[in-house]
Amino acid sequence: MTLTKTPMQTSSRRGFLGLLGAGAVLMAAPAWALNTDQARALVQQSLNEVYAVINSGRPPAQMYKDFEAIFARYADVDVIARSALGPKARQVSGQQFAAYKQAFQGYIGRKYGARFREFIGSRIEVTGARPMKSFFAVTSIAKLNGRAPMTVEWHVSDKSGQSKYFNIIIEGVNMLASERAEISAMLAANGGDIGALTAALQRAG
Amino acid sequence: MRQADPEGGNEMRARHVLPAVLLPLFLAGCASAPPGEVNDPYEAANRRVHAFNKGFDSNVVKPLTSHGGDDESNGESAMLLVTNVGGNLALPGKVVNGLLQGRPARAAQNAGRFIVNTTLGLGGLHDPAGQEFGLNEVDTDFGETLHVWGVPEGAYVELPLLGPSTQRDAVGKVVDLVIDPVYNIAGEPEVYYAFGLRVGSKAGERARFGDTVDSVLYDSADSYAQTRLLYLQHRRYELGMEGEAYDPYEDPYAD
């Protein structure tokens, strides 16, 4: 068992407790290959944290910061931000991309966080997980007040070196595609300038 | 249903249906986008309609359906009743479509729901079918029937007042009006009440999903593109015609 190698990567982000958790997971899965149970656990854990924030009763602005932190912890922000930017991502410097990615992360936290009231008193049940292409699809059912149950699918991959989700599909509507359309429209509105797009993202959401 | 028609006018109506049913065959000639892609050759015209619809929403629909403030229990429950009755009146049309699609179980479920809610639910004001008998609505329409029959999606179109659609679904909407048993059976004034309730029911949905509609229409950099994307993805999902799952790790820079 290669207990030493992989937990080190996660330690900086998840801290000591996370390290312990990762170690425990490794005991069960020697090669740290992502499997359906782990993908499922990842989604469940991030949902628990989201609901803890929703039920915290903190001021909205603070909640958006918390959602952003959860998003950064459980989602592969790098690949999502890169994919949203599309071909333009090839033309920008590392520094420009880092600034854009940071702004994108905050924008996601505010944009999706602003909908938190719809989730008060709701619950999302993780119902299953299955391998798909090179990643895993975790399925869940969202039961929101006064709405028919909705199917929410999470796509989880370990391609970044850590197990993270990179797409959420709600009743067939996929977040990655939606953000690609949105970011490309914002980029066009800002004359194709990455700096201006970054500034617009800092204000948006 | 025919026996229930007091004027025996359904024979005539059935003949009117035919041209509408044949129309999709012409549409079948139109190129359809591969799954996951957008076929929008009428984008310029669609964008003009979108601007009109957005203006109509912000000036008429939104003021009518939002009562301002979060505490609006009275307005909301009245709206819910209209939504319920309108939704109930839509069921017979869904039964017909279920049968046309060769899905008798779904048709029976909608029929059972209609019978229970019309009687025990007092004309659809309440929903005992869903709450006590597990008879939930199986949503469908003639657009889906055309899909089941193999008619391709056609181009994306945004219709005035009715919103995002495709050529196939637009034809479906027209045919749905013609084949709906409620409109065929109801007499002169009732048919307008029924239609009014259905429109009210749509308005009720606008009120309930107000935040979602607002964020797409008013907070997007390009609300036309977002509306088009959301409609096509959701519609394809409903019809079970989704494309391949997208893998950004293969090529994160792809168009």
Fold and architecture overview:
Chain A is α+β, with helices and mostly antiparallel strands. Chain A has a single domain, classed as Tgt2/MlaC (Nuclear Transport Factor 2, Chain: A, Roll), CATH 3.10.450.710. Chain A has helices at residues 5-28, 36-54, 60-74, 77-85, 94-113, 175-189, 194-203, and strands at residues 123-132, 135-143, 150-157, 164-170, 173-174. Chain A has a five-stranded antiparallel beta sheet. Chain A is globular. Mean pLDDT of chain A is 84; it is low at 1-32. Chain B has a two-stranded antiparallel ribbon. Chain B is mainly alpha-helical. Chain B has one domain (33-238). Chain B starts with 9 loop residues before the first helix and ends in a 17-residue tail after the last helix. The longest helix of chain B is centred in the N-terminal third of the chain and has 23 residues, at 43-65. In chain B, a hairpin with a 3-residue loop joins β1 and β2 (163-166). Chain B is globular and about 55 Å long. Chain B has helices spanning 10-27, 43-65, 73-89, 91-100, 104-119, 128-132, 142-148, 167-179, 181-185, 188-208, 210-219, 223-238, and strands spanning 156-159, 163-166. Chains A and B meet through α4, β5 and α6 of A and α11 and α12 of B.
Features:
heterodimer, A: 205 residues, alpha+beta, Nuclear Transport Factor 2, Chain: A, 5-stranded antiparallel β-sheet, 7 helices, 5 strands, globular, disordered N terminus, B: 255 residues, mainly alpha, two-stranded antiparallel sheet, 63% helix
Distance between the termini of chain A: 45 Å
Oligomeric state of the chains in view: heterodimer
Can you list the strand order of the major beta sheet of chain B? 1-2
Q: In the CATH hierarchy, what is the superfamily of chain A?
A: Tgt2/MlaC
The poorly predicted ranges of chain B are: 1-19, 68-72
In short:
Chain A is α+β, with helices and mostly antiparallel strands.
